[in-house]
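Dear support,

I submitted the protein below through the web form. The confirmation email said the job was done, but the results page showed an empty box. After a refresh the structure appeared. I'm attaching both so you can tell me whether what I see now is the final result or a partial one.
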Amino acid sequence: MDALTPISTIFPTIFPFFLCGYYNDKNGRDCIQGFGAVQPLVKTHNLQYTYADGTKVDLAGCDLAIWPRDRVAVVGANGAGKSTLFLLLLGMLRPSEGSVEVLGHDPGADFTKIRQRIGVVLQNVEYQILAPTVWEDVSFSPRNYGLPAEDVARLTDAVMETLRITHLRDKVPHYLSAGEKRRVALAGALVMQPELLVLDEPFEGLDPASRDDLIALLNTLNRERGTTLIVSTHHLDLIPEISDGVYVLDGQRGIVCRYCVEDLFEQDEMLREANVSPPILSELFGELRQRGVNAKTPVTVSQAAENLMALIRDGNGRSEDNSTPSP
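What the results page shows now:
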């Protein structure tokens, strides 16, 4: 077995409990105590889909296992199958081969049984914001499910306050900024208080301030409400802020594997083979190692600063085997 073979390819069921302390003090003790009883919220097996024109999307390889309170990122190049995977998870497509299970059900056959438990934010949020005012759009799901008017108002007002969009209540969504539209779409996805939130490229088109606000909000939902997050993104530099586990999609090999963030940042070669640009910190510290500097790849800018300061204090960190005389 290759020394770099991720453990999730060997023990996919028990992997989330052990790799990189993945289930840490935030929620790990509950899962370990319930070992054998806790089931994934989302799982796939040998998943493949063939479109009508014959295009085949291979999502086999490493099966998905996404657990309660998980924060999972899905990364891959354009055409690797991220959107197809999400459509399969949401029951909008049926697998050509293999199986999908979401919240204990086949989403393609039983989506009506789980739809209130899932929130979705599309990459292009304008496709899902259809009502003439923000309040009407956010309140669509509880009204559609036939909830009493007082419950509709309570749920809608609460989620709008949480997302800080109460001042947009009577606004026409078409005229909102990209960040405001993203918040309105997220409010509509959260109004029924779902267990699982699926977001397809949620940071596209956002300025840095709006992006940081969205990241903070998603992490608050995960931490305080226990909302499970599945986020597709090609912004690998954001992954340490939004996820604990990462699935890499390769159009040729399907789902390559699940990595913890720290391991992913060490996998430059694998990412390039999947046609995914490595994070900038991964490239920087990889270049330092090639130049003889003994430096572990950090995953955040603050870690990078600490590592570089340590190298400076220790005399540039060059290993003996790669040392060069000072001029």
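Response: this is the final, complete result; the empty box was a page-load delay. Residues 208-225 form the longest helix (18 residues).
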